[in-house]
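Per your request, structure below.
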């Protein structure tokens, strides 16, 4: 298989390493888990659906009998649960954290944090997990891999509507959350290559499965032909395990961030002034969350 040949060329063994991944049962997540198991990693699958997660683990163990893997249930909309799971992960010697879970067009509501659920799932919860686990992962010489998106460039932030709760365009609501995640993490990690920002390209996953049924039936097959498949898209996340990204770098498909194999490149979609503001707003968000917890 050509993708395994690529992995053999660009990646090292992960035997003895523990990788926690959110969204393990999603389209790209499943492929990432297959590659991780192939490389010998121990897996912690962070998902809402225990049945799907445990079924994934069962299937992986058929192909990789020596695999050590387990499921931990977490719903990124439930911030109390996110905090509890993060505290569990601090005790599990995590070497790599892959923040893969995301949500695009879903029913909208406010979470307990006061933020829109799309903002919560794609930014608030994953950023919190990364923020809390960073010292532990850095000490072990590991890395945080965060999945961004070209959608982050669909709009600039609005200080009067941080979570875009007043917006209705899914691309902008989702893109705003990814913009916060991407540039807040750059600020948090401060050019430390314990971070890798990755973009898997455009591929056929549950996130693209949001169109009306008739339209979706018409476009799903052309989409599979035009855009890269999940196996190739997942390679971007795998490369992120072995290559850190400094400020305004990311790993994504080498042709227009849409096609091809992974490549590290410059990201010039946000001014330094806006990036600094994103990080400042983010730290204020978490300072307020900490105050409410006390």
């Amino acid at each position: 298989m050509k993708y395994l040949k690529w992995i053999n060329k660009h990646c090292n063994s992960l035997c003895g390493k523990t990788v926690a991944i959110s969204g393990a049962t999603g389209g790209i997540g499943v492929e990432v888990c297959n590659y991780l198991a192939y490389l010998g990693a121990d897996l912690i699958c962070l998902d809402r659906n225990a049945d799907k997660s445990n079924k994934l683990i069962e299937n992986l163990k058929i192909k990789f009998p020596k695999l050590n893997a387990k499921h931990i249930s977490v719903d990124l909309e439930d911030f109390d649960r996110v905090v509890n799971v993060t505290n569990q992960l601090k005790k599990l010697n995590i070497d790599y954290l892959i923040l893969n879970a995301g949500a695009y067009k879903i029913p909208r509501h406010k979470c307990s944090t006061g933020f829109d659920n799309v903002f919560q799932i794609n930014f608030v919860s994953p950023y919190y997990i990364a923020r809390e686990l960073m010292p532990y992962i850095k000490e072990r010489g590991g890395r945080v891999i965060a999945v961004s998106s070209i959608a982050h460039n669909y709009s600039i932030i609005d200080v009067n509507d941080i979570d875009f709760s007043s917006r209705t365009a899914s691309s902008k609501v989702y893109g705003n959350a990814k913009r916060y995640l991407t540039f807040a993490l750059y600020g948090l990690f401060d050019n430390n290559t314990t971070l890798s920002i990755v973009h898997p390209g455009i591929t056929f996953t549950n996130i693209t499965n949001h169109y009306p049924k008739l339209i979706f039936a018409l476009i799903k097959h052309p989409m599979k032909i035009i855009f890269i498949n999940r196996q190739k898209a997942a390679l971007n996340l795998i490369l992120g395990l072995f290559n850190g990204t400094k400020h305004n770098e990311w790993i994504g498909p080498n042709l227009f961030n849409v096609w091809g194999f992974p490549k590290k490149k410059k990201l010039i979609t946000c001014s330094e002034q806006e990036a600094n503001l994103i990080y400042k707003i983010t730290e204020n968000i978490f300072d307020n969350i900490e105050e409410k917890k006390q």
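Residues 18 and 42 are 5 Å apart (CA to CA).

Regards,
D.
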